[in-house]
Amino acid sequence: MLLDSLRFALRSLWANKMRSFLTLLGVIIGIYAVVALLSIARGVQRQTTDIVEGFGPTVIMVLPGEQIEGQQINMASQFAPSTIFVDDVEYLDEKADLLDSSGTNYAVFVGGVLRKGEKKSAGFTVGATTGFKELFKADIVSGRNVTQEDLDTKARVIFLDKKVKETLGAELGDKVFLGQYELEVAGTFEIKNASIMDQGTNNLAIIPATLASEINQSKQVNRVIVKAKDADSVEAAKDQITSLLKEKHGAADFTVMLPADMLDMFNEITNIMTYLIVGIASISLLVSGIGISNIMLVTVTERTKEIGIRKAVGATEWAIMSQFLIESVMLTMIGVAIGVGLAALVNVFLAKFSPLQPVLTWDTLGLALGMGVLTGIVFGLFPAWRAARKNPVEALRFE
After folding, report:
1. pLDDT at residue 243 above 80?
2. What range does the domain containing 201 cover?
3. Cα-flanking dihedrals φ and ψ of residue 183, to 5°?
4. 149 & 189 share domain
5. Cα dihedral across residues 72, 75, 81, 85: positive or negative
6. Are residues 68 and 137 in the same domain?
7. Which residues, in sequence order, are bridge partners of residue 184?
8. What's the pLDDT tens digit per position in 254-285?
9. Taking residues 146-153, what's their average pLDDT?
């Protein structure tokens, strides 16, 4: 019985191909938007998760600016003058006995444009310590890493990301300028797992942290990265860092975070994006649903005599109603299939020709399917009810 209803619904829709397609456009656009944008959001989320998990279970980060418990990190504090200084790093090295003996790494943000001859790059320049390779998950392509000697002597060397290197046309041993500072290219690197949301790590240049402090004429530090002795002592080490710095500063004007905390914060942002995407797409489906309801009412009117004949030979109101509901849902399901297909095709092109790596998940497909079915049922219900309630005698007289 159901298969017969489906076949009948398909024949009815095929008989009015252009009208059905025009009715479907809203569904196609809405479903395409949901699937494509959610796939991109899930892809960025997976990239970010891979990066954060790559730091390892013992990493602890210290950022400037106070984070109020239960609230998101104060992003404005990340652009204000830093509340963390080099002597805080030295203090942690001396006092924090729950940290790994490999030492504390830190990063200093440096302003300015890199140039080589007439070529310029607005790459993100960072002063870093010897652990920059681990800090940024970088692969050395040529040359070397930052050394302790570079830090001790404030060596005027620079390490270029592959993208910055290509922009400047710089090779090992070449001279580039950062403001008035002439720097020698001592190495190049590549960050393969940089998130699309973190454009800084896609266009990065590294100089010794001590040189960065000299250029800035400040001992301020923008990021501190430490490691606990082992995974079991991470929370204790985090509490110890908080206690030591709060005692030294006299206030908690800093934030101590684990990679998992950053991931939770990012996931919260992507979840908000998900709600916004679904909300926007729902408007398209609402408009489309009104169109579907209108077309189904026209279809009911056109098939009035058919309804009268079916009732005359014993068809129940439920049979009539279910037939039109099936046609309405079938119409939206075709739109869902086209919308998902278009989104999947776009995902393939994005993955191949852009830094984005969209991920089409089962929950996204389930959401698209559910929205399609719901649209078909809600907006097909009234026309189906109108069809089921028609008087068979009057329907047979209809011309």
Report:
1. yes
2. 57-258
3. -125, 145
4. yes
5. positive
6. yes
7. 157, 175
8. 888 887 777 777 777 778 877 887 787 778 77
9. 92
Q: Which two tokens stand for residue 137?
A: 């998950």
Chain segment 68-127, per-residue pLDDT in tens: 665 555 555 555 578 888 998 888 888 888 887 777 888 899 988 899 988 988 878 999
Q: Same domain for 302 and 374?
A: yes
Q: What is the pLDDT at residue 197?
A: 39
Number of domains in the chain: 2
Distance CA(258)–CA(333), nearest Å, equals: 44
Q: How far is CA 12 from CA 198, 263, 330, 390, in A?
A: 51, 50, 11, 19
Same domain, 227 and 295: no
Q: pLDDT of 187-217, one tens digit each?
A: 998 876 554 334 445 688 999 999 999 999 8
CA nearest to 222, candidates 55, 64, 60: 64
Reported as half-sphere exposure (CB side, CA atoms, 13 A), residue 257 has a value of 25
Q: In this structure, what token pair is assigned to residue 222?
A: 């923008």
Considering the chain, what is the average pLDDT of its residues? 80
If asked whether residues 187 and 115 sit together in one domain, one would say: yes
Question: Which pTM does this prediction carry?
Answer: 0.64
Q: Are 225 and 59 in contact (CB under 8 A)?
A: yes
Degrees, nearest 5: CA angle 378-384-388? 145
